[in-house]
Design goal:
Blueprint (H helix, E strand, L loop, with lengths): L13 H11 L7 H10 L19 E7 L2 E10 L2 E4 H16 L6 E3 L4 H12 L19 E4 L6 H8 L5 E3 L7 E4 L2
Antiparallel strand pairs: 1-2, 2-3, 4-5, 5-7, 6-7
Helix pairs in contact: 1-4
């Protein structure tokens, strides 16, 4: 098991994180390394490491994606340094090229999330140490079809609002201008 972050970089309130880790893991997925990780968290007193770290590196190729809690087979590739489903990647590259031709620098800032990363995000959320996060298996990022884009940069959001649908992307979370999904 890859640890989601170094053991010496954890939450200031490890008891909350321990409970959160236990809640995010189904009983049939329990294993000795998870118990060791949870036990090691009890003595920690430092902030949580970023959940967009190299510990979650995803290799291109077949993997398991999730939609509404149901696993399905998918193929992941890497674009702009981030993993995403191959069909989403092809559409994104076309969209990025069109944006570039219009003078807009579009890029991915977050893509596919493996189960371990979503568990860490959700555990941090439950422990009040991170932003709102979907339950593991229920984040659209786990489908491989959701990407977060650099919308705070000049011209990006307005270009996406005008052109993203042409490439099969739409903004599915109204309060998150950066979150775009392909084929939904």
């Amino acid at each position: 098991m890859l640890l989601p972050y170094p053991l010496d970089v954890l939450l200031p309130n490890p008891v909350k994180l321990l409970a959160a880790v236990m809640l995010t893991q189904a009983p049939d997925e329990a294993s000795a390394p998870d118990v060791v990780l949870a036990a090691a968290m009890v003595g920690a007193h430092r902030p949580l490491a970023p959940v967009e770290s190299s510990a979650y590196r995803v290799s291109p190729g077949p993997t398991t994606c999730y939609r509404q809690g149901a696993p399905f087979a998918c193929t992941i590739t890497i674009v702009d340094g981030f993993p995403m489903e191959v069909g989403t990647a092809a559409a994104y590259i076309q969209m990025r090229n069109a944006a570039h031709a219009a003078g807009v620098a579009l890029r991915v800032v977050s893509g596919f999330r493996p189960m371990a990363q979503q568990r860490a995000l959700y555990a941090a959320y439950l422990a009040h140490a991170g932003p709102l996060a979907a339950r593991p298996g229920y984040s659209e990022h786990q489908s491989g079809h959701a990407v977060d884009l650099n919308t705070p940069e000049a011209g990006v959001l307005s270009w996406l609002n005008a052109h993203a649908a042409t490439y099969g992307f739409r903004r599915t979370i109204r309060s998150e201008g950066w979150h775009w999904e392909h084929g939904t």
